[in-house]
Design brief:
Blueprint: H1 9-14, H2 19-38, H3 47-55, H4 60-70, E1 75-78, H5 85-89, E2 94-97, H6 106-109, H7 119-129, H8 134-138, E3 141-146, H9 149-158, E4 165-169, H10 176-197, H11 203-226, H12 236-245, H13 251-271, E5 282-287, H14 296-302, E6 307-312, H15 317-320, H16 331-342, H17 354-366, E7 371-377, H18 381-396, E8 401-406, H19 413-428
Parallel strand pairs: 1-2, 1-3, 3-4, 5-6, 5-7, 7-8
Helix pairs in contact: 3-12, 10-16, 11-13, 14-19
Length: 429
């Protein structure tokens, strides 16, 4: 969030942002970013790209979107990993994740939402009502997925606040009927994107778009594998930042930048160097997504001389694992492959959801984690309820687990620090 030579205020004004609120937000986030990321020791040089992205997250990247719109491209804003970027790219569009990781305009949001709504949903409304998210305003279409009850009911209200809103239904079971529902939704979304863009999706365009997204996922999968090394070659905070940038950077530029930092990390591993000493307690975080700038819990963990080695999260491995098969001769066949890939996501909306527990155990083994931190946002019923059973089953399997509930405020930082510190001492013993 550093100062730049470019004055983006005219662009922000054209988008209808509240400049006073927006300047205040950027000032706060700039200090938070500096205190959280720039004070880390032994950071890989490749992180300079992601620092630059964050310094221009409301500037240069938004200008790129506006330039693309001027050239006739459509920008699609989304909130969930179930929305297939492949179908957006196949029409020449651009997909971006929307702001939902910090408290803002909470009082205004609570005029439209119950107070006991999760922080992620409140943040979605706060950023819109406070006029501080250029990505919302730059989007030609905003897509909301009917995952949890909170989201699908909140979207009924959000639809009246944005220019064009599209609701996508989600299956609740990994069954033939659930798969059929998801395919029907993806076919309808394909038609929506074709209508929005004026471009018909072809086998060639969808296969090419799928290859771009596959390459992006391969890059972050490569990064994830490198985090198995001890000493850890990259901090959990920096790895989370990369996973957050995944959602709004240009996909091909992002892929190249991630592969470049992976080249650097491979050399560090070969040299036996890392960002923390060998034997540092290793933690896997599992649960609710951590959208930027939600860095409180990782900063707390790594401030206590532990290192996060993986995220079983939508903004993490749950959202990026798995590639899409591109071997089909029809668009319908390629969409079948899309459905197969997205049905593998272990979201807590599914019941039963035993695959998620299996995946957590696999990640613990692969990344040599000493314990699992089960992260839940207050009032996020699916993950909070699922976390209770997962905690017990992990402990029964001999894997230490700590379940925490929090929000985006800083009020509980002291309590979290005490509990996480005790957990780290436990797994270090």
């Amino acid at each position: 969030m550093s100062e730049t030579a470019v004055d983006y205020h005219p662009m922000w004004t054209s988008l209808g942002l509240n400049l006073e609120n927006h300047d205040a937000l950027l000032s706060i986030l700039g200090r938070l970013y500096g205190d959280t990321f720039m004070t880390q020791k032994n950071r890989p040089e490749g992180m300079s790209y992601f620092d630059f992205v964050m310094s221009e997250v409301h500037g240069l990247r938004v200008k790129e979107l506006m330039d693309a719109k001027a050239a006739g491209k459509k920008v699609v804003g989304t909130y969930c990993t179930f929305v297939p970027e492949e179908l957006v790219l196949a029409t020449g569009g651009i997909m971006v994740g929307l702001c939902a990781g910090a408290d803002f305009a909470t009082d205004e949001a609570e005029k439209l939402l119950p107070r006991n709504t999760c922080a992620l949903i409140k943040s979605t409304f706060g950023f819109k009502l406070g006029g501080v998210c250029p990505y919302i305003e730059a989007s030609d279409l905003i897509v909301g997925e009917n995952t949890c009850d909170g989201k699908k009911k909140a979207y009924e209200t959000l639809a009246g606040l944005v220019n064009e809103f599209y609701a996508m239904d989600m299956p609740q079971t990994k069954s033939p009927q659930g798969r059929a529902l998801l395919k029907a939704e993806y076919l309808t979304f394909k038609e929506k994107m074709e209508l929005l863009s004026g471009t018909v999706i072809t086998v060639e365009s969808l296969r090419k778009a799928t290859a771009v997204v596959n390459n992006k996922r391969r890059a972050v999968q490569r990064l994830a594998r490198l985090r198995a090394a001890d000493p850890a070659p990259v901090s959990g905070l920096d790895a989370l930042l990369i996973n957050q940038v995944f959602f709004y950077d240009d996909p091909e530029r992002f892929t190249g930048s991630v592969n470049a930092i992976c080249d650097e990390l491979e050399k560090s591993i070969s040299d036996g160097t890392g960002v923390t000493p060998t034997g540092t307690p290793r933690i896997l975080i599992s649960g609710c997504p951590m959208a930027a700038p939600n860095w409180k819990v990782p900063a707390t963990v790594e401030g206590l001389n532990a290192v996060i080695v993986g995220e079983e999260s939508c903004i993490g491995e749950r959202g990026s694992r798995g590639l899409t098969n591109t071997e089909a001769i029809t668009v319908d066949g390629l969409i079948d492959h899309l459905v197969d890939r997205y049905m593998e996501i272990d979201c807590a909306i599914f019941t039963p959801n035993g695959d998620r527990l299996d995946h957590i155990k696999e990640m613990v083994n692969e990344y040599r984690a000493d314990g699992v931190l089960l992260y839940g946002l207050n009032f996020c019923t699916p993950y909070l309820m699922e976390g209770l059973g997962i905690e017990k089953q992990l402990e029964a399997s001999g894997i230490p687990a700590l379940r925490i509930e929090t929000d985006y405020s800083q009020e509980d930082t002291g309590q979290l620090t005490t509990r996480i510190e005790a957990f780290i001492e436990r797994i270090s013993g």
